[in-house]
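User: tokens in, sequence out, please.
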């Protein structure tokens, strides 16, 4: 039994929360009575960074967002979709779609490895394609050889025609 793999927003994001706190703090110092609520923004962003995660385990996917959580069994999962922006989405067998929190384009490989083959790695090169590319190289070399032989034959035919005239 393997241990569950947790995919989170990188903890380096707390550096951004700290910078946001400093920016808001300077405004707060200017008018504390009116701008106290600005200090809530970095706190909320920090809670979002802390809570948002996807856990991949033998039983399925556990999705946790800032305000809730959800469990998906492997039997519910039909596939995944990688959008241009935002989080990867899981296509479910009932036709719905669910965001996988903290799993962006650059973390799909981690998701595929943690799923132990239940989610295929879209970046992996299948073993069947390697010989096919070698065959393409051989075919291209044969085509080049045939073209050279055809040009030599044409040149020889032109030489014979020139000699006969």
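Assistant: Sequence out:
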């Amino acid at each position: 039994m393997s241990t569950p793999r947790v995919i989170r927003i990188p903890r380096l994001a707390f550096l951004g929360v700290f910078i946001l706190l400093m920016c808001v703090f300077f405004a707060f110092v200017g008018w504390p009575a009116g701008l106290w609520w600005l200090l809530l923004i970095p706190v909320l962003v920090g809670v979002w960074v802390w809570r948002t995660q996807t856990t991949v385990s033998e039983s399925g996917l556990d999705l946790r967002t800032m305000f809730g959580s959800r469990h998906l069994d492997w039997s519910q999962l039909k596939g995944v979709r990688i959008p241009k922006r935002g989080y990867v989405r899981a296509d479910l067998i009932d036709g719905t779609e669910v965001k996988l929190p903290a799993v962006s384009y650059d973390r799909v490989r981690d998701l595929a490895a943690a799923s132990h083959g239940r989610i295929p790695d879209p970046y992996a090169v299948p073993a069947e394609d390697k010989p096919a590319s070698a065959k393409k190289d051989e075919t291209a070399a044969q085509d080049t050889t045939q073209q050279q032989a055809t040009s030599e034959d044409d040149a020889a035919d032109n030489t014979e025609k020139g000699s006969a005239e």
